[in-house]
Specification:
Elements: E1 4-8, H1 12-24, E2 28-32, H2 35-44, E3 49-53, E4 55-56, E5 59-60, H3 65-71, E6 76-81, H4 86-94, E7 99-102, H5 107-135, H6 140-144, H7 149-162, E8 168-171, H8 178-187, E9 196-200, H9 209-214, H10 228-231, E10 236-240, H11 247-259, E11 261-262, E12 271-272, E13 276-281, H12 285-290, H13 296-302, E14 305-308, H14 319-334, E15 340-341, H15 343-351, H16 357-371, E16 376-377, H17 384-393, H18 397-400, H19 410-413, H20 415-433, H21 438-445, H22 449-458
Parallel strand pairs: 1-2, 1-3, 3-6, 6-7, 8-13, 8-14, 9-10, 10-13, 15-16
Antiparallel strand pairs: 4-5, 11-12
Helix pairs in contact: 7-8, 11-13, 14-16, 15-17, 20-21, 21-22
């Protein structure tokens, strides 16, 4: 597979030899000699591989990494240097380099490494396609794509971030689907065959938060604990609600994120870990940084790429599509044949503000599936408060509460009693219109006969028959 490669090397002969050799091997190679030229090349095009000298006339090859992360997030960096030292190698790897090569450079070795990178990238794409075929529309990525322009834009950014090894910070309100985004990042990455480990920072015990997060060489009971970093080796570590982490542990997390090394509680030596960190928060971390509650260096280290998941109220055009997707899932789980959402129910769902976001919508649809007696969810299968709030959202205050109505009695103020009263009056009116014919009333109301009887019983109208004119 042909790779697009940028070679940054100030020694002209070596640069030209590398470019020619890679082109003869079937790759597209571009050669430049300075840090400034390399930055300009990265900002004007995208590359699969960056091969750079560590020492350049105008700076370090590592200074190219911000441009790589910004414009070519899937790009792999190989560092060349004649200054052989363990310290230089470790520092380059800590800063994000993929591999380290010493001069004099072996062109055949360089080619093998690039071909290995290409094969790994191809395997990741094939694994992603295979998972899509196996899981279909239930995969996290396909669920995220269920939406309009806002979610398509998020998915476009997710695609770019997924092929990178850089850390990602997922921001959004509770219930928006931040873990879904994290799983989609993992499944579309080269780490997809590795583990996906979730850690909820809020669940960490107060007296053992450090060992909960980093493991322990020996716990209070004498046990050894690996911890989530080692459990996620070769895969992705998802740190949910990272904004809840106390300042003391933030410093230790920063060290782990920078060095890929952890120090378990009670251990004398650090342990290398091969993990990619995806963190999530519902807090405004920038504000918490200003307030001194969150470390600025950790914020920037975790948020190399930031993905914001919008609340459902900002994408109400997606509600019906999401409701239909959730209906399929919950109907299958409940072994029920509910297949449709009625137009009236769709209108109610689309007007509601969804303070609980997608999680609240999922709960509402699950409840409706359980209560529905036919193959269609109707407006009456939805919680009363959803319908009332949605109705108020589409009306002016003067329509909802006319100024001349006067004060309400204490009994009339009771919300459930008022709703039940409205339902009772409406049902009685429809029954009068059809001369008490329950089947005709159910058709007019868009209900199954069983659902109508349930509402009649709740309204005290089970035996009601309108007077004949």
């Amino acid at each position: 597979m042909a790779e697009r490669i940028l070679v940054v090397e100030d020694e002209a002969t070596l640069r030209q030899n590398v470019v020619r050799y890679l082109e003869r091997a079937g790759h597209q190679a571009v050669g430049v000699e300075t840090l400034a030229q390399g930055t300009k090349a990265l900002e004007s095009s995208t590359f699969d591989v960056l091969v750079t000298d560590l020492r350049l006339p105008d700076g370090s090859g590592m200074d190219l990494l911000p441009a790589v992360e910004r414009t070519s997030p899937g790009c792999v960096t190989l560092v060349m240097t004649a200054y052989a030292s363990i310290e230089a190698a470790v520092d380059a790897l800590r800063q994000g380099a993929h591999d380290f090569m010493l001069k004099p450079l072996s062109l055949s070795d360089l080619r093998r490494r690039i071909e290995h990178i290409a094969a790994h990238r191809r395997l990741a794409r094939e694994n992603t396609e295979l998972r899509r075929m196996l899981h279909g529309t239930d995969s996290p990525y396909e669920c995220l794509r269920c939406g309009g322009p806002t979610m398509r834009s998020l998915c476009a950014m997710l695609d770019k971030a997924a092929v990178s090894e850089s850390n990602v910070l997922v921001e959004g309100e509770s219930g928006t689907g931040k873990e879904l985004v994290a799983r989609a990042l993992h499944e579309r990455s080269a780490r997809a065959t590795g583990p996906f480990v979730t850690v909820d920072i809020r669940a960490a015990p107060q007296n053992a938060a450090e060992s909960y997060l980093f493991g322990a060489a020996r716990t209070a009971t004498g046990e050894h604990r690996d911890g989530p970093f080692r459990a996620a080796s070769g895969g992705t570590l998802f740190l949910d609600e990272v904004g809840e982490l106390d300042l003391g542990l933030q410093a230790k997390l920063l060290r782990a994120a920078e060095t890929k090394e952890i120090l378990p509680c009670g251990a004398e030596n650090g342990v290398r870990v091969d993990v990619r960190i995806v963190a999530a928060t519902q807090h405004d971390l920038e504000r918490r940084v200003r307030e001194g509650a969150f470390r600025a260096d950790l914020f920037y280290r975790l948020g190399i790429v930031r993905l914001r998941v919008p609340p459902l109220r900002e994408r109400l055009e997606d509600v019906v599509l999401l409701a239909e997707r959730l209906l399929e899932r919950h109907a299958a789980a409940q072994s029920k044949s509910v297949r449709y959402v009625s137009p009236e129910a769709q209108a109610v769902l689309s007007r509601y503000g969804w303070p609980g976001n997608v999680r609240e919508l999922s709960n509402v649809i699950e409840r409706a599936v359980i209560l529905s007696d036919g193959d269609t969810i109707t407006a009456l299968d939805l919680p009363t408060e959803i319908g009332v709030a949605a109705g108020d959202a589409g009306a002016s205050l003067a329509d909802v509460a006319p100024a001349g109505d006067g004060p309400l009695s204490e009994d009339a103020c009771n919300f459930e009693r008022a709703v039940l009263g409205f339902q009772r009056r409406h049902l009685a009116r429809v029954l009068r219109q059809v001369n008490g014919n329950r089947e005709a009333a159910a058709r007019l109301l868009g209900l199954s006969s069983a659902t109508l009887y349930r509402y009649l019983a709740r309204a005290g109208l089970k035996g009601y028959q309108p007077e004949k004119p």
